[in-house]
Write a structure and sequence with these properties.
14 strands; eye lens protein; four-stranded antiparallel beta sheet; Gamma-B Crystallin, domain 1; G_crystallin-like; 2 domains; 1 helix; about 5% helix; about 180 residues; mainly beta
Amino acid sequence: MGKIIFYEGRNFQGRHWECNSDCMDTFRHFNCCNSIRVSGGHWVAYEKPYYMGYQYILSPGDYPDYRCWMGFNNCVRSCQMFPPYRGSYKMRIYNRPDMTGHTMEFMDDCPNVHERFRFRDIYSCNIMEGYWIFYEHPNYRGRQYFLRPGEYRACGDWGCHNPMVGSFRRMRTMM
């Protein structure tokens, strides 16, 4: 069973709230979030209610300050737990919307999309197997985007405002 604890203060201080299921609006539970403890499961925390805004991928562990989870600020307004996955990983990326243009298939992590795909922009993708995380910059830095299996016909479908993806990796869960 998964559990995530949100703290208003840094270093797990102040008012806190424990959660063990998806929550589309955390506002009634806490005002701000400066530290998080994940004691079970893997989670995606969102900056805005209803699973919108910046996404933060959280594995079991302690995050004593919002910068530790690559947070842009101390605002977390919704969260989702995602189930463990032990299968294979497979996706196709495209340099044009609606899964057109040049394509490349991946089954492993990619620290620099431009070096492997030869294009800077990913406009669409098809996640065929597994969970993936897209990062705004190479070497797994910048904004994060969590993708479940399915078709993403435009970068806005995964929450991005521009098609620039610098790196991506498989979201592997250890159980």
